Amino acid sequence: MYEGGCLCRFVRYRARGRPRHETVCHCTICRRASGAPSMAWFTVAVSDFEWLAGEPRTFQSSGHGRRAFCPRCGTALTFWSKREPGLIDVTTCSLDEPECVPPRDHTQTAGRLSWDKSGDGLPTFRGPRPATGDHRA
């Protein structure tokens, strides 16, 4: 079980089950939504995710995706896609213990900024992760 929430602690959530699709995304939309060079995510089943406190706001970030964030402090929290409605992506660094869910790869590296060099040795994919159909956008 994993718990987390926003910076101001207004919104809190719990995720159960085995995390999957642990990635660092470098797409333009993740960069804009976070104000950072990339954004770390993991995925769980929607049935394994619940909001514990506060009411996040959402916005349509693409034709198929919605993102949730704290309406008070702006922390990015989740991503949900019509393409995979049974799954929800959670921002790894909004976890209380983000070290528990390290990334396994980098996706959408075609959008990586030239000065963003990780050197962590993880696999990289210019687009979505091929085997999983990673759907972030």
Write a brief structural summary.
This protein is mostly beta strands and about 140 residues long. It is about 5% helix and about 35% strand. The chain has a single domain, classed as Metal Binding Protein, Guanine Nucleotide Exchange Factor, Chain A (Beta Complex).
What this model shows, in words?
This protein is mostly beta strands. The protein has a single domain (2-111), classed as Metal Binding Protein, Guanine Nucleotide Exchange Factor, Chain A, CATH 2.170.150. Helix content is 5%, strand content 36%. It has one helix at residues 28-34; strands at residues 2-5, 12-15, 20-25, 39-45, 49-53, 57-60, 65-69, 76-81, 87-91, 105-107. The strands form 2 sheets. A 7-stranded mixed β-sheet has the order 6-7-8-9-4-3-10. Strand 6 and strand 7 form a beta hairpin. The radius of gyration is 14 Å and the shape is globular. Mean pLDDT is 91; it is low at 133-137.
